[in-house]
Amino acid sequence: MSYHLRFITALFLLPFLSSWGEEEANRPALDKPNFIIIMVDDMGYAGLSSYGNPHFKTPEMDRLGAEGMRFTDFHSSCPVCSPMRAGLLTGRYQQRTGVEAIIHPYSQHPVHYTGLQREEITFAEVLQDAGYATGIIGKWHLGYAKEQPKYHPQNHGFDEFVGYHSGNIDFTNHYGDHFEHDWWHGKEEVEEEGYSTHLINKYALDFLERHQDEPFCLYVAHEAMHAPFQGPGDPPQRLYNNDRMIRNPDISIIQEMSDALDEGVGLLREKLIELGLDKNTLVFFFSDNGGQNQTQSNHPQLRGTKGSVWEGGHRVPAIAWWPGTVKAGTETDALGISIDLMPTMLKLAKASVPEGHLLDGIDISPVFLQQESLPERPLFWSYIGNRGNRQESMRQGPWKLVVDHPDATPGTFENESLELFNLYQDISEKINLLEKYPERAATMLAQLREWYREVTRDATKQPGGWLSRNYVSTDASVFNGKNLEGWSSENPDYWSVEEGAMVANSDSEDSKTQYLWSDVEVGDFYLSIDVKQTPFNGNGGIMFRARKEEDSGKIIGYQADLGVSPIEGVLWGKLFHTGGRGMVDMNDLGKEYVREERWNHIEILAVGDRMWTALNGRICTAVRDPGGQRVGQLALQLSHGKQTIHYKINRLVHNPDVELAGKFENALNSLLKPPCNEGS
User: What DSSP string describes 116-136?
Assistant: First the structure.
């Protein structure tokens, strides 16, 4: 018996007996079997009672395993949400898609604008072309499609979508991690009452009813067991000020979340049987990564949790269920990974990707159809955390190499730290064998580095904001985040620093515009800055390539404006040139996307006579001004007094190599408006 089965069966017993005969179990699959992928969120390896959960029972999910095959060595391709989902949908290591990190909810974060680009090929697209009805119910998390519609699931092969785009939503009021409502039917945002798990269950059953007479592929991406930690009937937790979030939930809350999830799996199974679809439907159940500590679903023998490349971060429960085809009550220790599901489904559906398109996963159907083993192969994990911290690991047979980078510059591979484990002897990854087997570690490290070079060599380009950059809270090159060193004002009493932001504040009715000038001059540059203000009949603004005439005191330069329309009374955005040259652009499209009394992300790019601004990911202006000045200072503005405006500089890049707001330079140039003329 292999180490996997010793590890599992010594602890757990299947709660149900097999009822399928050998002859029926080996019946060949039909030409176009249906597929249902049930993926739960943040459920660790011991999330099911049949995998050792001591806290609560999961009878319906356990029943799937008892009537099908349980995997004891199955892994997600990444220990966090977005990258793993990119890998699942494409059948490729997610590094090829350019999605290496969680797509962050905050617009100022470097990877907020990342998403699944249109050039990727998903299993939904291939199956759709093969005549399948395709749908996704639940979590997407591959791009904030309200900001950038190209990321919408229905642009990636799914005929139908009911669910949310963000990383998680309040189970009750459906506010996402970006603190905006996030519940959709197709491309329409819908206000709908209901506990999110119940809604996902409901619409999954509805999909089966409507597509029972045609081949289908349904991707059920559950929210549970992810935070917020809420059971059915609990009040909303995600509010504007976030003051009701439960950080350390009682086990009773987790059990309620699990019960609703378990019930849905049972209803789905029963509906397949009721409609007579069970004998022609492969259901594959698994988790997207290891659990958070709060879900109390991680196995005590596995090191690490969600967000780590130790076993606890990516080894997950997994079940293949296909009555009459998958032999009931079976287990396998075959080494599988989530990127295997696409090639497996395509093989069973007799569908294929275009010639020359590489899939990294393999067909694992021989495992659950004939109880065969898989050829030995290396597996790799690599991801980047929210603060730029990187981790990698590699698996080769029993051997596991883990690479960490403590205290490295964000986004880099500095400070390489290695650990080597033999999982057959040490499933808990406690005994570092690096000193005992240095040559093996060196060989695996070389393989890991070569793999990373190969999968990123031609990776799909991602915007990462406008400029691919490392995460920094403030840019010390222009603002140290602590005081106003390097900045000056005629009236310094108007300016202060609070929590890493420059604050413009006036308690008077003085209508004179106040400026805070930076010592730094800019020519060709990229600036990422966040601005927050209370709406009023005035505005803040960022001056650039600007100067103050000594004689007249007139400000000459450009200004990216964030203000309030005195007519409509809402925040808006524009770019104009001061000093008598007139308006470069009166485009106020930004007003639809600016968030009142919250941080708004402004990005400014100037290259030669071309200038672009964006508000919260949307291009607001794109203009040319051949007669304008090409160099000048930065300055921040406060106008109309008795107001408070916060400015937080994220990044200043001189002479940038640009990738802009989800578009690349040639596409951006096509947006440029005609050059403004003197005196316009």
Answer: --TTS--HHHHHHHTT-EEEE
Measured on CA atoms in the order 208, 211, 215, 219, is the torsion positive or negative? negative
Dist CA 627 CA 638 (whole Å): 27
* 141 catalytic residue (yes or no): yes
Could you tell me which residue, 457 or 239, shows the higher pLDDT?
457
With beta carbons less than 8 A apart as the criterion, state whether 514 and 639 touch: yes
**The CATH number of the domain where 135 resides is what?**
3.40.720.10
Neighbours of 432 (CB within 10 A): 14
Residues 396 and 331 in one domain: no
Residues 520 and 454 in one domain: no
Whether residue 36 is found in the same domain as residue 100: yes
Residue 226 bridge partners (DSSP): none
Write the CATH number for 584. Answer: 2.60.120.560
Together in a domain, 494 and 610:
yes
Q: What is d(CA 85, CA 40) in angstroms, rounded to the nearest whole number?
A: 12
Q: Do 226 and 145 share a structural domain? A: yes
Question: Average pLDDT of 16-24?
Answer: 37
Indicate the pLDDT class of residue 616, thresholds 50, 70 and 90. Answer: low
Catalytic one among 4, 75, 78, 81? 81
Report the number of secondary-structure helices (H) and strands (E) in the chain. Answer: 12, 28
Residues 632 and 562 in one domain: yes
Tokens 């999110």 found at: 196
Residue-level pLDDT at 472: 39
In a domain, 474, yes or no: no
Q: Record the tokens describing residue 304, joined without a space.
A: 């690490």
Amino acid 635: pLDDT: 94
Q: Both 600 and 553 in a single domain?
A: yes
Top pLDDT among 249 and 658 is at 249
pLDDT given at position 7: 37
pLDDT tens digit string along 115-159? 999 999 999 999 999 999 999 999 999 999 988 888 999 999 999
The whole domain housing 453 covers 376-462
pLDDT score recorded for residue 486: 94
DSSP letters along 502-556, please?
EEEE--S---S-EEEEEEEEESSEEEEEEEEE---SSEEEEEEEEEE-TTT--EE
User: Judging by DSSP bridges, how do beta strands 69-75 and 330-332 pair with one another?
Assistant: parallel
The CATH number of residue 409's host domain is 3.30.1120.10
**How many structural domains comprise the chain?**
3
Q: What is this structure's pTM?
A: 0.74
Q: 81 an active-site residue?
A: yes
- Out of 446, 462, 478, a domain closes at 462
Question: How high is the pLDDT of residue 567?
Answer: 52
Given the residues 75, 109, 112, 141, select the one marked as catalytic.
141
